[in-house]
Amino acid sequence: MHYPTALLFLILVSGAQAFRICAFNAQRLTLAKVAREQVMDTLVRILARCDIMVLQEVVDSSGSAIPLLLRELNRFDASGPYSTLSSPQLGRSTYVETYVYFYRGAGGEGPGVHGSPRSLGLAVLPSLVLVPLHTTPKAVEKELNALYHVFLEVSQQWQSKDVILLGDFNADCASLTKKRLDKLELRTEPGFHWVIADGEDTTVRASTHCAYDRIVLHGERCRSLLHTAAAFDFPTTFQLTEEEALNISDHYPVEVELKLSQAHSVQPLSLTVLLLLSLLSPQLCPAA
Ligand SMILES: *[C@@H]1O[C@H](CO)[C@@H](O)[C@H](O)[C@H]1NC(C)=O
Predict the structure, then answer these.
(1) Which atom of ligand 1 is nearest to the CA of 246?
(2) Where are the active-site residues found (predicted)?
């Protein structure tokens, strides 16, 4: 198999007590959508909860939606500044989307994230690799099995068993039956810890109850850092009606909180997080 080169980014986390990593299907995020006050307001508050967020389904052709969102986020949350990093356009045939990482960086002293863009050839090996995926509902099984092979490739390439797979996997309800879910390599192979469990509801509509959005941890060190993981019911927290919430997304964000001080095996003073921007599998590679 031939793998196109991945784009990579390195972030050093130091001293932070707890560290929250999130994924959110922002449901066709465009400039027009972000420009609406209630949408902007809610998105900013969702983003401000996270040290690293992977926003999925960014379909903005203007190129202005993310800078606008970033500016508002940095106005709202003084613990930043936040920065962003976008993937190339990813997709199959006519449908393309971008994944955008928002991550918190701190100036001066204190806990925070220090980011620096690198191409290949990192000086330091990552202690944690993030691999986002938004599956297409028509090929959930195929793509999740491809994700397993991406995992193998990534963990070999970066000599790290500590990997977090996350995003809207469409891993439930009509898109993937429980029987088929349990046959995935990510379920049958040992070592994968699905921290957003099958019974969770990651959908906004009261009429649906599906665990589409997932976070899967791999690696002993990674698991030893696990503090909490949950879908974030933003409509309840921000007192939005279902209708108002649906103007933001029909998905909840999913979040995992890692606690650096909890690790008993290795005591990391810093965590090197590698953000994978472009998936390596041929099925999942960037649109031409
Ligand atoms: C949802 O967004 C549309 C378009 O801006 C707006 O007209 C509508 O009032 C919004 N709905 C709610 C419940 O806020």
Answers:
(1) 1
(2) 97, 134
Read off the pTM: 0.89
Contact assessment for residue 52 and residue 275, using Cβ atoms and an 8 Å cutoff: yes
Q: Are 83 and 105 in contact (CB under 8 A)?
A: yes
Helix (H) or strand (E) holding 67: helix 65-76
Residue 245 backbone dihedrals phi, psi, to 5 degrees: -65, -40
Decide whether any atom of ligand 1 lies within 6 Å of the 41 Cβ.
no
Into which CATH architecture does domain 5-284 fall?
4-Layer Sandwich (3.60)
Which of 43, 244, 247, 250 most suits a substitution to test ligand 1, by most atoms within 8 Å of the C-beta? 247
Q: Distance from first CA to last CA of the chain, Å, rounded?
A: 18
What's the gap in Å between 45 CA and the centre of ligand 1?
A: 19
**What residue owns the CA closest to ligand 1's atom 2?**
247
**Nearest to 1, CA basis, from 284, 282, 286, 283:** 282
Give pLDDT tens digits for 177-219: 999 999 999 999 999 999 999 999 999 999 999 999 999 999 9
The residues pairing with 256 across neighbouring beta strands, listed in sequence order, are 21, 229
